[in-house]
Amino acid sequence: MHTTSSGDVSISYEDSGAGETAFLFLPGWCSSRAIFGELASRLAPRHRVLAMDWRGHGDSSSNESDFGAAELLADALAVIAASGAKQIIPVAMSHAGWVAIELRRRLGARIPKLVAIDWIVTDAPPPFLGALAAMQDPAQAIQVRDGLFAMWTEGVEHPGVLRFVREDMGTYAASMWSRAGREIAGAYTREGNPLKALAAFVTPPPTLHLYGQPTDPGYLGAQESFAAEHPWFTVHRLDARSHFPAIEVTEQVQKKIEDFVAA
Question: Which domain of life is it from (predicted)?
Answer without folding.
Answer: Bacteria
